[in-house]
Design goal:
Shape: globular
Number of helices: 0
Radius of gyration: 17 Å
Distance between the termini: 38 Å
Number of strands: 8
Order of helices and strands: EEEEEEEE
């Protein structure tokens, strides 16, 4: 039975850690390393829209992930804390979105 004294009538525990994330679009037109954010952040995910090149994600100089040129399109969830700065480098024509907060 519903308790109408409560404002929320459903269990929303999956929304507890929801934050307002930002994004960075990578189109592969620039193949040099690009700094997304200078400082600490959390890498939430990288959404690969159209593949065709390798994407390298780094925490400063340390490599976090390399998404291969034959990886399937879709989201790659990370949820990693970045200590220094979040950078991305595409080796060629690719369409991706890096989500961080």
């Amino acid at each position: 039975m519903a308790d109408f004294n409560k404002k929320i009538q459903s269990e929303n525990r999956h929304l507890e850690n929801l934050t307002s994330a930002r994004f960075y679009y990578v189109d592969g037109s620039v193949t040099t390393q690009q700094t997304i954010i200078n400082g600490a952040c959390r890498l939430v995910r990288c959404v690969l829209n159209t593949n065709g090149a390798t994407i390298t994600l780094k925490d400063g100089t340390r490599t976090i992930a390399v998404i291969a040129s034959d990886a399937p399109e879709g989201p790659f969830d990370y949820g990693l804390y970045i200590e220094n700065k979040l950078t991305v480098q595409a080796s060629g024509a690719v369409d991706a979105t890096v989500v961080f907060d």
